[in-house]
User: Which sequence fits this backbone?
């Protein structure tokens, strides 16, 4: 049973020092009880108290790592159901499924295609997180051959569909040992094989997927596996029907976070099962929203995966901290001392919209993204963050005056009202530009093209 805030408070040092973040020990205890703080934040808590409070201090959903080094995928460790309560921490891992019936050339070709699925958008890089190798043949020899190709060619996290080989424990153990250094997720332990799968996962320090149909059966199986001393788990409630799967994933999240029900306090995995790529993307999108930690899809086309990865980025963006670019001079094209200077905000979507249109104009230019804490032009202006004073101060601080031999500044048309005061404070001539970024190419060609 979960400890209350008062139960936790009794174990704390009661110094009210504020070093943990909250101003009092009671406030800290309440945050611990709700899963919004870590006991490690208190520098004075005793070892006895740590032991007594271990269950309350542990995150409601365990952090599980798949892969190693730069290829590691961290999943779980969430503390809220709705991101506006705090924020989501670890974006859903997106894995692409291949199988062991593919020829080596076909397998290598698809792996190459998956590795090329890297997208740049608003200053962020999107890519899939890993690959799942399915055992479609049912033959461990064919699977080993395919795994050799995957292991030597694929640089990111792996999920290995090896649960069906548990009856040949010796051969399976040898296979897992060969790739254990990259710490793949072993899929999956079920009621028939969990003892063998748990032993192999534990001996090789590999995370283990646990598969059972329905939450009661899943919780029972998890308790059997944790009773064997292993907790690096990922849960698969194994529903084939989309609505039932979404209900299970939602219940797992609620039971883990609201009820602190430890047998379901682990990351989850879901599979987009439709044969139609578009329907797969719809399924995967829904799983990302409600509440899969890992989604596996068969789609490998750019036009299918880019919308999915964009959706994931939107869901896992901190709603209290907009995406923003560094506030510094940005040069677009082969700039010279005579190149025009445009000012905008450091909100990523605003900045990259402006940058893209400046590139389209073919007129080399400097862009000055003023630090508005990641807000757009009109929002920042309304909040007093994009003002004549802030723009003028940035012009003087950023060093643009040493890079150009003129004093002409293009101001977004929506804030033309700032032009007079900005000109007075900065000493620059202010040119009012278009209101929308889409108007920049025609404006630049008309004003600055030689």
Assistant:
């Amino acid at each position: 049973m979960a400890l209350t805030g008062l139960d936790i408070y009794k174990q704390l040092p009661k110094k009210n020092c504020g070093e943990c973040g909250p101003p009092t020990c009671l406030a800290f205890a309440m945050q611990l009880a709700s899963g919004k703080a870590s006991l490690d934040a208190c520098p004075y808590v005793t070892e006895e108290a740590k032991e007594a409070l271990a269950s309350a201090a542990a995150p409601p959903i365990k952090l599980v790592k798949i892969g190693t080094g730069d290829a590691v995928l961290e999943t779980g460790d969430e503390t809220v159901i709705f991101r506006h309560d705090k924020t989501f921490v670890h974006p859903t891992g997106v894995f692409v499924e291949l199988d062991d019936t593919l020829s080596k050339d076909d397998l290598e070709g698809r792996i190459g295609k998956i590795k090329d699925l890297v997208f740049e958008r608003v200053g962020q890089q999107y890519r899939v997180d890993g690959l799942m190798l399915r055992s479609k043949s049912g033959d461990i020899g064919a699977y080993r051959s395919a795994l050799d190709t995957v292991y030597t060619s694929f640089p990111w996290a792996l999920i290995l569909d090896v649960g069906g080989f548990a009856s040949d424990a010796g051969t399976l153990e040898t296979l897992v040992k060969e790739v254990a250094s990259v710490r793949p997720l072993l899929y999956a332990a079920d009621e028939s094989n969990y003892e063998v799968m748990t032993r192999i996962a534990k001996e090789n320090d590999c995370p283990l997927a646990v598969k059972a149909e329905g939450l009661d059966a899943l919780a029972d199986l998890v308790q059997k596996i944790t009773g064997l001393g292993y907790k690096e788990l990922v849960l698969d409630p194994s529903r084939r029907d989309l609505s039932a799967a979404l209900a299970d994933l939602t219940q797992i999240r609620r039971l883990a976070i609201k009820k602190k029900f430890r047998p379901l306090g682990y990351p989850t995995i879901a599979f987009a099962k439709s044969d139609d790529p578009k329907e797969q993307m719809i399924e995967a999108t829904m799983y990302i929203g409600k509440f899969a930690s890992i989604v596996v899809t068969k789609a490998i086309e750019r036009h299918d995966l880019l919308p999915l990865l964009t959706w994931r980025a939107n869901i896992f963006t901190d709603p209290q901290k907009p995406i923003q670019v560094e506030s510094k001079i940005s040069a677009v094209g082969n700039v010279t001392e005579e190149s025009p200077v445009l000012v905008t905000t450091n909100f990523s979507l605003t900045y990259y919209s402006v940058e893209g249109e400046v590139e389209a104009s073919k007129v080399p230019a400097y862009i000055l993204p003023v630090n508005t804490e990641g807000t757009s032009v009109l929002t920042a202006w309304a909040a007093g963050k994009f003002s004549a004073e802030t723009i003028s101060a940035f012009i003087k601080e950023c060093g643009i005056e040493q890079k150009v031999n003129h004093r002409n500044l293009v101001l977004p048309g929506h804030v033309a009202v700032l032009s007079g005061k900005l000109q007075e404070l900065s000493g620059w001539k202010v040119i009012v530009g278009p209101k929308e970024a889409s108007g920049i190419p025609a404006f630049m060609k008309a004003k600055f093209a030689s």
In short: Residues 347 and 426 are 23 Å apart (CA to CA). DSSP finds 17 helices and 17 strands in the chain. The longest strand covers residues 93-99. The mean pLDDT is 92.
